[in-house]
Amino acid sequence: MLEWxxxxxxxxxxxxxQETCPNCSGQVNRIHMDYLTRYLSNLKFLVxxxxxxxxxxxxxxxxxxxxxxxxIIDDLFKWFSYLGLGDGKITxxxxxxxxxxxxxxxxxxxxxxxxxxxxxxSLPLSFKCLHELDEYGQNFDMNELNSASxxxxxxxxxxxxxxxxxNTLDEDVLKLYTDYIDNLENxxxxxxxxxxxxxxxxxxxxxxxxxxxxxxDCMEQLNKLIGLEKVKKDVNSLINLVQIRKLREERGIxxxxxxxxxxxxxxxxxxxxxxxxxxxxIYHEIGLLSKxxxxxxxxxxxxxxxxxxxxxxxxxxxxxxxxxxxxIDEAYSLAQESENDYGKEAIDTLLKAMEDHRDDLIVIVAGxxxxxxxxxxxxxxxxxxxxxxxxxxxxxxIELYEIFMLMCEDSNLSLDEGAEDYLKQYFKKxxxxxxxxxxxxxxxxxxxEEVITNQANRLAPQSDITDEELNTLTYExxxxxxx
Length: 483
Known about the structure:
Elements lengths: L2 E5 L5 E2 L13 E5 H18 L17 H17 L7 H11 L5 H5 L12 H14 L8 H16 L8 H20 L11 H4 L9 H10 L4 H22 L11 E5 L5 H14 L8 E4 L1 H4 L6 H13 L3 E5 L13 H14 L5 E6 L1 H9 L2 H6 L2 E5 L4 H14 L3 E2 L1 H16 L8 H19 L7 H4 L1 E2 L10
Parallel strand pairs: 4-7, 4-8, 5-6, 6-7, 9-10
Antiparallel strand pairs: 1-2, 1-3
């Protein structure tokens, strides 16, 4: 599997043996091809959205029946071939990079056939088409549209990783890369294309935390969660039901059709996403889902800003969730009553996908109880597919205290006696006076962050700070304003 080591601070690609950046002493992370494929998917989605303007694009007349996405893939293939042949050979890692990113089955001979191809100073046709589409779209108030800049970002980012696919860097190939990128940027400048900086998603380049790998591990993590006793009981019953249905299916015994899509209702911070992630892994372990991953989204991830965009956007999210669970937070926001709202289009697209992929996709919709009820009543298709409900109650004062102490344990912090007494009374008061939309675990997290800030302000003026002082929260640190 291809892997790169990248500095979190300066973005420099490092040798895979390095644990810190020699350039700026920053911490490093490992990233893989899935990060780059997601980056390319963002461009593909944008291109699908604006291709409706293709009839008004003069450069597109040269494409005949080819769509612009295919043109982009072809130009990227030429770009990688140009770089790969810069040292006279194509390595196995370079070939894997190309085929994984472009979802292709090229051979080394395919690339060697382009050995005479040179990239000159003229602008590739894909850039010309996108630039014309951008200009046309801007006439319709799509002022931020700049797909040509997005494609430039792909050339620059992908090329940077491609030339280091073997964890080495050839100086001649680096010069080819640098010279062409500089020339491409200058040429785009002549077309008045504003080059935007590449934005690397921090959440995508962080190393993934180790996840449970067996059914027993998953069940243990579920049952060790603080509080949520009713939720645990409901989820365990659901798992038992699924296991028995799976057994009947394997033995060829008929069974009634049953929807396994779920409604998670309750206030924020009650562990809904955590339970959904564990449930995805559990369903994978018992053979119900092929991958067992969780895709989280909300209205902004599904609904577009103009006609035709929402269906494409929703389909892309659904595609990424196949084999796992799609978790839609605040799903009720999709069912707004405005005539010009595109939430209904997202719901219709979602319902069709739930039917088409019913054997390898589970959808969980989540939100406040009253609003979720209204959401389900807004469409008969929703009512029939979401008939299993799990309610997440607010954490009580004891459970809130336990959550805070778990955060302290993870940060190697302890409380003195005065702080413990204060904290217990604090959470008792908070729970008894909680609002209808109490934030639960999020409220605990906010308090924790405020307390450790108070500790820092208390200790910072001291000239000699002991380890015990660093690791202890005192009563004084908890003297914060009550929410």
